[in-house]
């Protein structure tokens, strides 16, 4: 371990620059540190005076982040967290103006360039896409993956961001992708708080990075606490670099390089980061830089005070070892600057920060003022006492907000119910127009919605020869993947057992031998890192298929899926995308730990991903053909018990397309519309045969996709004929079946077509016990479908269908 803890007066290479140039660089660094600290102090005041909602800042980490920024080159990547404001300022990916614009939640993307007002302050991001959703040249800019607040959440995607450099370096067939890499010389710089190293995702990612030897430099900002919890409670030996010594590479082994340096020692920090960046860039060796003796002068955030949990002695120590003060002392002691010079610099910095804060507030206020002035003018024109209260409320606002503006407009509309006048019509027209504008401000870009959206890909039928081959379903998938790997060099696939044995159900069988270990490879058992790997690779222009072996195991990666991938397009307002395909399998598994259908969790947590539930492998292949040509993330859940069922092999197996979000009627019927998907669809089909014997005809709809669901409203069209609805799936009660019912009854207005109560049939609330009998008594069976459908018809006509029980 490189343990640089001594004070280094000067280790700079000064032979190539003059002393004046050297001095100017150092003073500019100090100026930036001062400006960043002042922004933190002023930001807290803006929150406490009510002009901003909440604040979290990077004070106490300024000097280390300035040193880190010195080794960051165009094409490199940052995956950080909400303490990195000085780093962001030094890189030029944010500014004081943008910092305050984000603090005020300005919905204008030109003001808050990271999120358009959607993220709290100190959550940074760089634009990767143009207005049409096309990739910008990443090698010409300094790149930052969009920050998330999830503790340690920035770690998972590091694997993919760094692995992309490795693939671009070693796979010459990717050389044409000049927008994404200069043959793999890019480094990923990850930052994390010391307390967050207690999270499992930190260890998953670090282990994977060490195994794969990816070019990453991980900086651990160690200020001694995780909110109020000290290192002694957080970490063994209270020292993360001590704990990591087992990861230290030795001789020719894989592993990491570990550095330890004090966060107030500017020259030492510069030396350490130069060395760590060189290891990562030139040798692809991952490095951890443990930055100790940092402070956090304002505590964790604006919601609390660190005086509550820090001792007097600790607070006194922080006053002395504040990194900005230590750098100031060093400047004076080394003769680089004089006292008066520094005072002038600090005064100028204070004026500049205040000026930029005022400019950000003024621009934010202008955004609000337009809507406020228009609302006041329209309400004033009505001239009715009915709108007097909301009008006067708006006229008296000292610090307007859009919530106040539209809350009072909506109150006025309610008070004017039944009134008809041109002035009211003008108000209503304005409000309707503003609803669209406010949707764009606060709700758009859940998906990319570009020309490459999977929802804009038309279906292409599967073609079959006259003497069609009948094969196992897995062989259709295998041929589909083979064709796509041949078609697009960017496609890579990975997961547990995916490489050598071609996955547990043989979807990738033999493909590693054909396409090599750079494109199809095994991973360790680390679901969060697998998904993070997919996110990072997709951000850098590759087309990853990340496999999670079974659907149940997807739960282990939910924070990464939900907090990072699913909301990436939304939280960057469409300026970043990561078209990852997550492939997994489930349904009709047996046993408490392999129940196979946690759809409730996925539907609730993965808005922003397409969720595809194909009934067989041919349908799955058609969906993969669409998704691998599109630019949005998706989850494809294959039916585990369908891999060895026989299917016809399409002649265009790599080209036919099953459109996303389009349900399909697979059986014509007259009495009941039954909507299902996946494995329970076959249960419903078997039940339909039994019900025909009882004089009941089922019309069966295969949902095929849950997000989005039935875009062409086939379910509604079916209800126009049958007037009865039964939804069948194997999720828990009130889960996916309730979701589907709500989609049909509310969004498709199917409620008005019903002649009876809509019914759902799902699994029991307990998990299924092991064995076929356990499956029979806990998940929908053919008998369950038959009896419930019969009961629905009995309620309609008991004479024709006398009760069974």
UniProtKB/TrEMBL annotation:
Gene3D superfamilies: 3.40.50.920, 3.40.50.970. It holds the Pfam family E1_dh. Its cofactor is thiamine diphosphate. The keyword Oxidoreductase applies. SUPFAM superfamilies: Thiamin diphosphate-binding fold (THDP-binding), TK C-terminal domain-like. Keywords: Oxidoreductase, Thiamine pyrophosphate. CDD domains: TPP_E1_PDC_ADC_BCADC (cd02000). The lineage of its organism: Bacteria, Pseudomonadati, Bacteroidota, Sphingobacteriia, Sphingobacteriales. Residues 471-645 form the Transketolase-like pyrimidine-binding domain. This is Transketolase. One of its GO terms (molecular function) is oxidoreductase activity, acting on the aldehyde or oxo group of donors, disulfide as acceptor. The keyword Oxidoreductase applies. E1 component of the 2-oxoglutarate dehydrogenase (OGDH) complex which catalyzes the decarboxylation of 2-oxoglutarate, the first step in the conversion of 2-oxoglutarate to succinyl-CoA and CO(2).
